[in-house]
Automatic annotation (TrEMBL), chain A:
SUPFAM superfamilies: Nucleic acid-binding proteins (SSF50249). It comes from Streptomyces indicus. It holds the Pfam family zf-ChsH2. Coiled coil: none annotated. This is OB-fold domain-containing protein. InterPro entries: ChsH2_C, ChsH2_Znr, NA-bd_OB-fold, Thioester_dehydratase-like. Residues 19-55 form the ChsH2 rubredoxin-like zinc ribbon domain. It comes from the Bacteria.
UniProtKB/TrEMBL annotation, chain B:
InterPro entries: Thiolase, Thiolase-like, Thiolase_C_2. It comes from Streptomyces indicus. GO terms for molecular function: acyltransferase activity, transferring groups other than amino-acyl groups. This is Acetyl-CoA acetyltransferase. The keyword DNA-binding does not apply. The lineage of its organism: Bacteria, Bacillati, Actinomycetota, Actinomycetes, Kitasatosporales. The keyword Transferase applies.
């Protein structure tokens, strides 16, 4: 699969740490560093919407989750995406924090094409596990079905 | 002291529109001027009297260009609301506030768009925003259809909403378009077989779940209720207006809060009904923003026409057709008349309350018009 033409994440100050951690093979989510609060939040932002603390940390997740929803995009799409279509795009709710949901793709193994999983196997509630793959200069999370 | 209120303080007294087509030769600026001048002519107000403008983002023509082209006078109020189709009704809200408080006396709202002959907005990868685009677009959620398809699938899973429910929405809009000679789909009936066999755009959404691609423009004119009584047309009063940006909302990719299926419609609705003398059960006809069919069940729930999760089932039994529980999108809407970021829904609401719609609801006296659900939104209640 040529991933070079797929869109790279356009990061910002708040989001950059997420991608630094994925480059190390770690899935981390921003959390409030106020010990009396500690709420996870996603997408990352400057301060905590619960206690308004500006102190944050990046908490490591198990990488386990469940499919919350999914679609199969068909053309018209950007060229690199049209080549794989129909592919799947999924929203995963994390096991530790069901309100934290990550968009991604379900694949048979890290780096496999986004259409590698039989569409009939996509089900809301299906248990998935994170893997990591290179997409251009970024390491992005992908998801495989838990065996 | 009585609290200040916008209730029935202002009225829409003029509407105008250009033809709608996949491609029109004239520029957006020209189309905007034509629609605005038509609306002022409809109202019987000279363009030199215009002193207020309101538009919403993705509008390419600014007030300076409009004002000097139509020969407006000194302009003392102008605003531009964010979030594209979510801002359609907010233009009316802003003008109502301005006129009611004396910041302006003749307000014009408009939308001109060449989305039919122009590029699809999502193909411009240069403008993808870092937040939240960095969390969605790399994974192939490229288009609004993909983002709303995700919510639609979840709604189907949680509440048993079906493709037949979405077809009911598409069919009601198409049936009304088949009565409206100005509609792009005027002579194009839709059948269940066509719908069920249509190509996918983002499964579970097919071609007919998506709005049209349109070139065209519309405008309307707002003045005080007092002045409206002297205008050429029967006034259509702005009974209640609202905008809605819910707590912890994330735009069309609203996946990151406790309850992604309660969107901006719920917030706008609470504010809208709080200020109104009547409730959802008293609405004679509704023009509900329909960039995608699933926005209708979501909005029916949000604006209180049915309980949470019942938006799909509500569409059964011809409920959305003329004579049904809630006739919607009686010009054909964005799905079948024209997709002009929801402004045609506003003008159609006015036509219904004037009694001049091509699919007239008998004796319609109240109309809800909504802007885009799934983004920070707005809505108005119109009454005759």
């Amino acid at each position: 699969m040529t991933t070079t033409e797929l869109l790279a994440p356009v990061t910002d100050d708040d989001g950059a740490p997420f991608w630094e951690y994925t480059a190390r093979g770690e899935l981390r989510v921003q959390a409030c560093a106020n010990t009396e609060c500690g709420e996870l939040r996603f997408p990352p932002r400057p301060c905590c919407p619960h206690c308004r603390s500006f102190d944050s940390e990046w908490r490591r997740m198990s990488g386990k989750g469940r499919i919350w929803s999914y679609v199969f995009p068909h053309p018209p799409l950007l060229p690199a995406y049209a080549e794989m279509a129909p592919y799947n795009a999924i929203v995963v709710e994390l096991a530790e924090a069901p309100r934290i949901r990550l968009v991604g793709n379900l694949v048979t193994e890290a780096g496999a094409p986004w259409n590698s999983v039989d569409p009939a196997r996509l089900k809301i509630g299906a248990k998935v596990q994170v893997v990591f793959a290179q997409q251009g200069e970024f390491t992005v999370p992908q998801w495989v079905l838990e065996r | 002291m009585a609290a200040a209120t916008l209730k029935d303080a202002t009225a829409i007294v003029g509407i105008g529109q250009t033809p709608f087509a996949k491609q029109l030769p004239e520029s957006e600026k020209t189309l905007a001027c034509r629609a605005i001048l038509a609306a002022l002519d409809d109202a019987g107000i000279d363009p030199s009297e215009v002193d207020g403008f309101a538009s919403y983002t993705m509008e390419e023509t600014d007030e300076v260009e409009i004002a000097k082209a139509i020969g407006a006078g000194d302009v003392t109020f102008f605003s531009k609301v964010g979030y594209g189709g979510g801002g359609s009704c907010a233009t009316l809200a802003h003008l109502a506030s301005a006129v009611a408080t004396g910041q302006a006396s003749v307000g014009v709202a408009w939308r001109s768009r060449k989305r039919g002959s122009g590029k699809r907005p999502w193909t411009n990868t240069a403008v993808q925003l870092p937040t939240p685009g960095q969390w969605t677009r790399p994974y192939g959620l490229l288009r609004p259809a993909d983002e709303i398809g995700m919510l639609a699938r979840r709604h189907m899973h949680e509440y048993g909403t079906t493709r037949d429910h979405l077809f009911n929405v598409a069919l009601a809009c198409r049936n009304r378009a088949n009565q409206n000679p100005a509609a792009q789909m005027y002579e194009r009936p839709l059948t269940r077989e066509m719908y069920m066999n249509a190509r996918w755009i983002s499964e579970p959404l097919c071609l007919f779940d998506n709005c049209l691609e349109t070139d065209g423009a519309l405008a309307c004119v707002i003045v005080s209720a007092e002045r409206a009584r002297d205008c050429r047309q029967k006034p259509v009063y702005l009974h209640s207006v609202a905008q809605g940006l819910p707590a912890q909302h994330h735009g069309m990719v609203n996946y990151w809060n406790d309850d992604p299926l309660t969107g901006p419609a719920w917030t706008a609705a609470r504010q809208l009904w709080k200020q109104a003398d009547f409730g959802p059960e008293d609405v004679d006809v509704a023009q509900i923003y329909d960039a995608f069919t699933p926005l209708i069940p979501l909005s029916l729930e949000g604006y209180g026409f049915c309980a949470r999760g019942e938006g799909g089932a509500f569409t059964e039994g011809g409920a959305l057709e003329i004579g049904g529980r809630l006739p919607i999108n009686t010009s054909g809407g964005g799905l079948s008349e024209a997709y002009v970021h929801g402004f045609n829904l506003i003008n159609e609401g006015v036509k219904q309350l004037r009694g001049t719609s091509t699919a007239q609801v008998p004796d319609a006296a109240t109309c809800l018009v909504t802007a885009g659900e799934g983004v920070p939104t707005s809505a108005v209640l119109l009454r005759s």
